[in-house]
Specification:
The chain contains 16 helices and 16 strands. By secondary structure, it is an alpha+beta fold. It binds histidyl-adenosine monophosphate. Histidyl-adenosine monophosphate (HAM) binds next to strand 6, strand 10, strand 11 and helix 12.
Length: 452
């Protein structure tokens, strides 16, 4: 008898694994998701309550202090920033997004907005309107900086500018607004203030500074050795520990100010004293942009992990900029709080946000006709000012009721086919479980009575 060969005797050679053609095709076709650009970020819904709060406070203070909103483009001629922020600044030398457009012009994504305010002030003849012009904006800025926490390539600023006012009270008003911006957000902040005088004051001071640093050059970081030649004032705000140590004994600009600049600064400080706004006189605040004259200041978050990164805002006076850009001599000052950093500080300091309005009514539906009527009902209640919730995409009534329950919503209004036919709505009291049937036309009034 021929015995069937044992399966073990037969050496089966496994066929090579071949992907099913459909799967292979599918794998090929699966499109790759384009990557987020380095240094850019998405600000997701869970962060929006912080952003919304910042915007509310920014807008409220603008209204209270009489700043009018302006919208300025994010694309400007590169030259605008080279001539205002300054050729030898980090922003212009290393951080600007510059590109050529098809018409041959060299354009830049704005790294800041003060220069744009000035361009707009000149171009739109805003000098012929009542002075000072108090303007503000909220929007994204772009700097090709090394990305790290609190340092992004697209970030947001609120920016307030007072254009056409030379008096120290304008500086004080801008500082007060900034102080209120941070304190109304619930932040614990410190202000550092200095005066860098006029260009003449600065050039006398720079000569002294360069002279002083000459014998100490070896202890400086590579960057500061270059700065000593190109932009000596920047030696004062280098974050390298070695440079910071040397700087402690450096001559201070306040000793080189003209009488006029000194008096202006004294007046600003007197206003701040009168307002009870605390400040640190900080001789090392020089700011990284060339257009400043006289008052300069920054706010930092108290207890921030890294104070260098966490300057929450920068501001000051720029009395010569409009003239440098081709306008008539026009003194001005302003400030730009950085919103991304304000949000980081709010989280670090555990700021509690005002609670979002709680939904009062959940609109539920059953069946296609019910859903159609429910959407119309939702709209009627919305017009009447109720805070609402729904899950129209769900068919199951149980899921909808669970949803309302989880959110702690006191009333569910239910519309099914029957209610559509009878022109009624069921009101369900979620606490007691009681239900009543109400005429569709009377529902808004009925609900108003419940929330009296
Ligand atoms: P700024 O100091 O260059 O000044 O920037 C102001 C604020 O913007 C900083 O204090 C910071 O909060 C935020 N900021 C700057 N760079 C970044 C970044 N890479 N990532 C996140 N946040 C950043 C100005 O821009 C001047 N235009 C301010 C001004 C207005 N001066 C007079 N008027």
């Amino acid at each position: 008898m021929n015995m069937p060969k044992k399966a073990t005797q037969v050496k089966e050679t496994k066929p090579p694994k071949v992907k099913a053609p459909a799967a292979e095709d599918q794998a090929k076709k699966k499109p790759k998701t384009p990557q987020l650009v380095r240094g850019m970020r998405d600000i997701l819904p869970e962060d929006q309550p912080y952003w919304r709060r910042c915007y509310e406070v920014a807008q409220k203070l603008a209204d209270e202090f009489g700043f009018e909103r302006i919208e300025l483009p994010v694309v400007e001629p590169e030259e605008l920033f080279v001539r205002s922020v300054g050729k030898t600044t980090d922003i212009v030398e290393k951080e600007m997004y510059v590109f050529e457009d098809s018409e041959g012009g060299k354009l830049a994504l704005r790294p800041e907005a003060t220069a744009s305010f000035c361009r707009s002030y000149i171009a739109n003849g805003l000098m012929s309107r009542p002075q000072p012009q108090k303007l503000w904006l909220w929007g994204p800025m772009f700097r090709h900086d090394r990305p790290q926490a609190g340092r992004y390539r697209q970030f947001f600023q609120a920016d307030y500018e007072v254009i056409g006012d030379a008096s120290p009270v304008a500086d004080a008003q801008v500082i007060l607004l900034t102080y209120l911006f941070f304190t109304e957000l619930g932040l614990n902040v410190e202000m550092h203030i200095n005066s860098i005088g006029s260009p003449e004051d600065r050039s006398r001071y720079k000569m002294e500074l360069v002279q002083w640093y000459r014998t100490r050059k070896k202890g400086l970081c590579e960057n500061c050795q270059k700065r000593l030649v190109r932009n000596p004032l920047r030696l004062l705000d280098c974050k390298e520990p070695g440079c910071a140590e040397i700087r402690k004994d450096a001559p201070q600009i306040l000793d080189w100010l003209s009488t006029e600049a000194k008096e202006h600064f004294m007046h600003v400080l007197e206003y701040l004293d009168e307002l009870g706004i605390p400040y640190f006189l900080d001789p090392f605040i020089v700011r990284g942009l060339d257009y400043y004259t006289k008052t300069v200041f920054e706010f930092v978050a108290v207890g921030a992990q890294d104070k260098a990164q966490i300057a929450l805002c920068g501001g000051g006076r720029y009395d010569l900029l409009i003239e440098q850009l081709g306008g008539k001599p026009t003194p001005a000052c302003g400030v730009a709080p950085g919103i991304d950093r304000a949000v980081i500080a709010m989280k670090e300091q555990n700021v509690t946000l005002p609670p979002a309005p709680k939904p009062q009514i959940f609109v539920a539906q059953l069946g296609e006709q019910g859903r159609r009527r429910a959407l119309a009902l939702y709209n009627r209640l919305r017009e009447a000012g109720f805070v609402l919730a729904e899950s129209f995409a769900k068919d199951s009534l149980k899921t909808q009721l669970d949803n309302a329950n989880q959110k702690g919503i006191p009333y569910v209004l239910l519309v099914g086919q029957r209610e559509v036919m009878d022109n009624t709505v069921i009101i369900r009291d979620m606490e007691s479980g009681n239900q009543e049937i109400v005429d569709y036309q009377k529902i808004v009034n009925e609900m108003k009575k419940k929330f009296k």
